[in-house]
Amino acid sequence: MNNSEKVNEEAWISQMKSNAEALLPPAHLKRKIMEQIDMRNDNGDVLASVRVDTFQPSDPMDAIIQQLKPGMGKAIYIAGQGDRAVSQQTNYEAVLWPDSLEQLFQQAAPWNPPLPLEAELRRIEVYYGFDNVTEEEREAMIAESEQQGKSVVVRDLRPNTDIVGVRLLYDKADRSFECRLFGTTKSRIHVPDMEQQTIERLRIHGQEAVYLESEEMRRLIWATEHPQAPRAVQYELLAEHGDREWLLEIANTIPLV
Known about the structure:
The protein has five helices and 14 strands. By secondary structure, the chain is α+β, with helices and mostly antiparallel strands.
């Protein structure tokens, strides 16, 4: 092999390495174990997305999220990810609703999704939202990172009084379950061990759904469109005691629109 051929081969190897690296996930995701589940309608439109993953102590994003207490929201910029994006991470706090369910949905109108039947409602809680970070604030965070050499910049999100979700606690046949409803249809569920987590795709009322089970919790999640609502509503049924069939039975009592 002459020098010219050697140079060409080294250049080719270097190019192949660059191409391979371009296909790898970002550095902060390389060691993350996760599954992304999209739930679509009959037209193929994504109604809701659920990301199930494990916390990674070395991931700066995870380190911040783990510190979020209920009622806290953060705007986070991490340098070196290429897209210059600012992520908004929230931990909604469930707040007791002092009035009736009818008054709640009057305030949340036109949001009025159907609810489980054949169960006794014993507590109503609501989740309030946060203002989105402004474009001016995004640019200021990026500028702070670049000018001061900070790899991570964090800002508080401002809480507001917009109802973004509802938590309903029910009793049924001597067992309890939760029904959570959200107008925000992107969820992130952290689990200690993905290998101990059952993840099953199925359908509720013809809609794509996902069932998650661990030793501690069973969850059934799906989304559905309502004529009066500006976006899909995400349902989440949770129970510590019970099984897959019991949650499916509850889900099937929720009337179709």
